[in-house]
Amino acid sequence: MSPHTYCIAPMLDCTDRHDRFFLRLLSSQVRLYTEMVTTGALIHGDRLRFLGFDSSEHPLALQLGGSDRHAMATCAKLAEEAGFDEVNINVGCPSDRVQSGQFGACLMAEPQRVADCVEQMTASVSIPITVKHRIGIDDLDSYEHLSDFVATIASAGCKTFIVHARKAWLKGLSPKQNREVPPLQYARVRQLTADYPELAFVVNGGIENQRDVQQHLRDFDGVMVGREAYHNPYSLADVDQTVFGSSAAIATREAVVDAYLPYIQQHMKRGVPLAHMARHMIGLYKGEPGAKQWRRAMSEHTREPGVGIEVIEKALLDVREKTIQVERAKTDYNSNCGLQL
To answer: pTM surpassing 0.90?
Structure first.
């Protein structure tokens, strides 16, 4: 089985170390990615902040944003020394801020520059260097351009490509809009797998449920799930069983929260705000009784001055009570229906 069978996408303001610890409580097998870190921030900024992680987060990849091969190689070394399992190059983000730094999706117009980075990085470290990219940008959206892009970078030593199956518009659309339009073109990625059987291709974009996952795993070496994993984290609860064949019991939502609480307490003592860690649980009860109250507790009540984990413990009790009420109402309804018959 590919080490990239099931990946969680790097998401800015989402996949920080606290979210990754939380997600690991739901699945021990999925591959986790950091938020994108720029080479400048890593070289000149707070390295502990960007490179710190809990040992339970493995397998874990650092996503880098940059285009200077020497800086990228330096950061790859730092990542390897810190214990990361992979370094991923961001060639997919279309935001103006990223473009102004000369990295992200705009680099699809400069495949040789990306290849130079890959070559320098692979020569500097022993961990894999992977690339996350689009199927095209603006008018550079032909399959020929995409194929040449992959071939150029593969020749520099990259063996795994994570492909967002949607082209990026660098002007006129926000990054949020660019997650919805233009249309997804999975067929382009399938063609890459046929043309380059020696390479691994992981598909990203529009994967919203486990049915989508199973479908894509028939065509690709792996899937990368983004917003769905963040906004509906319990969707990961059975991945170890359904995708990786684990015989372990599926953790309940309540058990996951109970396992997260000691971590929260530990990091609160280090000065991390409660809300900063609780926000990753907002979607845990999506579609379940009490979901609205849970969301409010995680997003609002955890921000109140002086509160601690008792806010989360109370929210758990409220959800449990709501669930009992709903089940009781169902039982009463079924009983009444039986009497009428």
So the answer is: yes
